[in-house]
Amino acid sequence: MNLLRTKSLAANITLVVLLASSVSLGVFAAAMLLFDRSSAIAESDARLATLADIVGQNSMAALDFDDRDAAGKILQALRKEPPIVSACLYSNISGHLFSAYYREPSATSCPQTEPLNSRSPRNLRSVSRPILRSSETVGSIYLLADMRSLQSRRNKLILLLLVMALLSLCAGGVTGLIMQKRVSKPISLLARGMHHVTSEATFDARAELKGSTEIVELAREFNSMVTELARRDRLAKQAKLLLHQQACTDALTGLPNRRLFTDCLARATAFAQREKNIFGLLYIDLDGFKLVNDSLGHSIGDTLLCEVASRFKQHVRRADVLSRVGGDEFTVILTSVHEPADAGRVAELLLECLAKPFQVGGHDITVGASIGISTLEIDSAADVDLLQQADSAMYAAKRSGRNRAVFFTQDLGLMARERLMVENELRGAIERGEIYVHYQPEFNVLTGDIVRFEALARWRHPTLGQIAPDRFIPVAEETGLIFPIGSFVLERACTEAIKWQRPGRRPIQVAVNMSAIQFNSDRILEEIATILDRTGMSPQLLQIELTESVMVGSIQRSSEMMHKMRELGLSIAIDDFGTGYSCLGYLPNLPIDVIKIDQSFTNKLCEGSDTVKMVRSMIDLAHSMEMRVIVEGVEEQAQLNLIRDMGADEVQGFLLGPPGAEPSTRSDLEPGDLANNYGYEAYASHKFLLAEQS
Ligand code: C2E
Ligand code: CA
Ligand code: CA
User: Fold this and answer.
1) How far apart are CA 558 and CA 312, in angstroms?
2) Rounded distance from Cα 500 to ligand 1 centre (Å)
3) Mean of the per-residue pLDDT values for the chain?
4) Which segments in the chain show pLDDT lower than 50?
5) Strand, coil or helix: what is 129?
6) Edge-to-edge, what's the strand order for the sheet holding 124-133?
7) Is the CB–ligand 1 distance for residue 599 below 6 Å?
8) 541: CA distance to ligand 1 center in Å?
């Protein structure tokens, strides 16, 4: 059985055929032998009986005449019958053996009396016949024959059977071969095909459709199985590719995601270090994107991101890798830059490409970007973390006013640590009473009258001492702490401004700075109204200073907010004018009362310079739109003279009066009559020699 199980199908078939033919041949041979033996015995018995009868009849006379010789001769005639071993003739008269014949002398002699038991000795046949005359028994004859003829017949038969067995063996072998060709060969071919499929993982193997019906069916099913496998394999590969793409690309913009970017950066770094190349990394964070998302909804935010990505794509080379690594964060790997300045130029290009507002969902949206730049130089250390560097530089860009690109320097690492310290200390600073407000006067340039005070936040830390707003305001904006600080300053400013007013005198305004993040919050109008209400402050006395960065996001929404502030009765100033986003085109549609020309222009003002021309055209532009102009940061008399000549309306600066404690408490200002003191006299007392001019 085991043999059957382990052998090949061909061997099994041959074995079964041989076994079957051997068994049938065996059964047939046994039957044949049995049948032949019994028929041969019957035949021999019949012949013996006939012979006995003939010999008996012939011996009758010899018996009658008691002629033993004659009887002997008659019996000798049996010599012609080779199977006869012996013949015994008995006379009934004597009851004894009358005559005998022996084929060979050694033969067993006949018994003296007629054997009663007619059972034949082993391998011999015997017959005993009475010799009858009419119905009288005169004697009996007893013949003993061997089975010689039977033996030879059996030998012939066995020979024949052997030949037949040989033939059937050959037939079995041939059948096996044929079966092998018809059945097991196609199966082996199929098996080889399957092996090909599994080992090579290709699905091009096909079985030939020929042979018996079952084999054709098997081959057809095999082929359709392989086709199905190929189809599933194709689907699996497609799914794998899709998964890989999904894992590596940003679903929204289709750009590489952070994962792929990290891979590319690692490869680019390794390549650059090997090839001694320079390469640059830009880390871009959109300014004001959160505002767009919060105020106009995520769907507009998403579309805006796609538009930004598409503009960026147009401005980087194909070899550069632009990725989206976070909500509003992008990176660009600049693969071949000749010098770090090249990376700076690309960053400038990207900033410029954002200048034109995006039109999304019926809104004109402006976004800027803060870009950190780091470059891998030939002598850079192997473990330099470019991403970390670009990220620090990006934060520095944000802190230094946004919408700009900043290169990484070693100092930035220190700045990042300092920023963290400021953030930690700023929490709870209001509650601990460390935040307070200083006021800086703004004057009418012609009359010298004080028209308002600008409220400026101050922070005195118990151990670190005075911390400048430039250090803590950006941190407050990033962390959201600007909301409590802004409210605190606004409330203090309103409470203070009320004290300046005198019946019958010109009102003196207070200007409060407002960050873009505050301006864009939904609660701001309500909060201003509440503070005005609580302090009893007249809205006309409050001027809100906004920077151009509030235009980031939807210009329509910014305009709407400004109109609502106007409706509240507030006046609006654009602070640091000329440094931020180019929103000049929208100025005419915005309800702006004053523009405050940034001090970076003021300190470059000198006779005949280009800055003079620029400031003059800014003043003319503002006047043409019926806006007043304040020039801030005036430190020198010559600047003041120029400003007045150019036709500015108001001035502010250290030359005229630095920020100081609450005007209502200041001893240098005459307490009884503030308005008077802040008037022309104050102007004169701060050494504006109007008189000198006149
Ligand atoms: P800013 O609104 O442009 O305020 C004017 C800054 O210029 C003030 O600096 C002021 O002290 C300074 N300044 C005035 N005159 C001169 C001058 O003649 N020469 C020079 N070099 N500087 C002059 P400060 O107080 O350090 O404030 C810096 C910035 O911090 C402010 O710039 C403003 O953007 C922000 N800030 C201050 N207080 C607040 C606040 O309460 N809320 C918000 N959102 N921002 C504030
Ligand atoms: Ca200001
Ligand atoms: Ca300013």
Assistant:
1) 25
2) 22
3) 86
4) 670-694
5) strand
6) 97-102, 84-91, 136-146, 124-133
7) yes
8) 20
